[in-house]
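Extended Data, record Flagellar motor switch protein FliM
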Amino acid sequence: MSEVLSQSEIDALLTAISSGELDAEEMRKDEVQKKVKTYDFKRAYRFSKDQTRSLTRIHENFARLLTSYFSAQFRTLVQIAVASVDQLPYDEFIRSIPKMTILNVFEAYPLEGRLVMEVNPNVAYAMLDRLMGGQGVSAEKFRSLTEIETIVMEKIFNKALENFAEAWKTVVDLEPELDVLETNPQFMQIVSPNETVAVISFSTKIGDATGMINLCLPHVVLEPIMPKLTASHWLASQKKARSEQEIQQIQERVKKATVTVKAELGSTPLTIGEFLNLAVGDIIQLDSLYEEPVKIRVGNLLKFKGQPGVSKKRIALQVSEVLEEGVEENG
């Protein structure tokens, strides 16, 4: 926000311009001069701003899903929110995380390649402590996981990956599967060091323990679905989802609509005089034989054919044929 000048400062500025101490033209040139931004060719930016915004929206939903899942799993207050979405070389990501951490390496069919969810030890050990009956306190000194602890952590994050698939459902149907759980970043080489990756950082708080969860998505893995990470596709998919929901609502309403269904045994022409002279016991000859199927109409449309009969001492009709399209007839 620009600084507001006082009246005395405005008067002093006008006096300086009038006396020639300040050149108004030079000031104007300084304002219009283009700002130069340094570009580092070693850091290739592969994700556009539009795609970065889409990744942010997707993983904000993922953060909400993880919050609900972890809160129920650990039976304590859990807060997870997207802190940042950056793109950087994979080697820089590896150097930015602790030397001893929890790395969940997973695949997400139909995408080809591996992705990583890195969990800060502060958060990971608080999870283990909570599951083992503790208060959710993080360890003072970090060490390698035991075999039992590894199995417990794998179960936790296998379920978390289901929430990852749910968050991406609006873009693509994924089937994530945990591949391996590592603790040393140096043993994890999923792409080349110079490959650009999107890193989504989540600020995480479980009980009194705080830390970061980082999701590493290599560009080479997301490349087949990059066109779907645009605002136009995002809005189109939302519109399509709304349309499908509206269609489903219409179908539910149509199913509850009341229609008239009637069966015709046959018909015959009568004069007004003959109709008025009908009496009990008279026989009316119809234009159909008793072996022929009965016409069944829905409204005025001929929709079925069937045979009359009796079911549980009541007159009934058995449908024997469904017509492909109703035929509208008058009379």
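Summary. The longest strand covers residues 314-328.
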